[in-house]
UniProtKB/TrEMBL annotation, chains A, B:
Gene source species: Dactylosporangium maewongense
Keyword annotations: DNA-binding, Transcription, Transcription regulation
Signal peptide (residue range): none
Protein's name in the database: Helix-turn-helix domain-containing protein
Domain HTH hxlR-type positions: 1-98
InterPro entries, per database record: HTH_HxlR, WH-like_DNA-bd_sf, WH_DNA-bd_sf
Length: 112, 112
């Protein structure tokens, strides 16, 4: 189980889930469809971890048919705000990072 | 090897290294001493990944005795700025997250 706060964002899917829920409550199936490549099991574990961490709440809606919804808590909304600059940095710098990796790989192959 | 930008912060030590280097260039030994619990191998891998990603540069100083220094690039300094809000969120919310985890664990044990 996770301890301390940093691990909150160390698994790949947490940030994706938080970003999707920032637009409002979502069902499991909606999240699954919206997260390209996530497995059923990984989404289940990610949602359970985020619920345990207090980032989202899981609500069972007693309607016909009954279903479950996931929604960010206040702490979750604040976390989404706090990671936005980092997500923006990623978008702005992905090309530069890829160039740097290519140059590094070329350099280190030449040094062997 | 890593691809895309998000993995940059997914390993535990990257953020610690970036935060330490934000205060100025550091030698390997200084980083090792400053990062409680990091192994020699993990610090080596983390520094190599960050160099490959273009977040820091590794300089061999031709002095007596010669030594190596690590320094953030402009992109690295910008990344540190971008992750500050998330680090602050972590500090402000660690107690609330721990409370949430304890309550979740009690609840889920009771439900078994």
């Amino acid at each position: 189980m996770r301890s301390g706060c940093r691990p909150l964002i160390e698994d790949k899917w947490s940030l994706h889930v938080i970003s999707m829920l920032d637009a409002g409550p979502r069902r499991f199936s909606e999240l699954k469809r919206g997260l390209d490549g996530v497995s059923q099991r990984m989404l289940t574990v990610t949602l359970r971890n985020l619920e345990r961490d207090g980032i989202l709440v899981r609500t069972v809606l007693e309607v016909m048919p009954p279903h479950v919804e996931y929604q960010l808590t206040e702490m979750g909304v604040a976390l989404h705000e706090a990671v936005k600059p980092m997500i923006a940095w990623g978008r702005e710098n992905v090309a530069e990072v890829e160039r740097s990796r290519a140059a590094y790989d070329t350099r280190t192959v030449a040094e062997r």
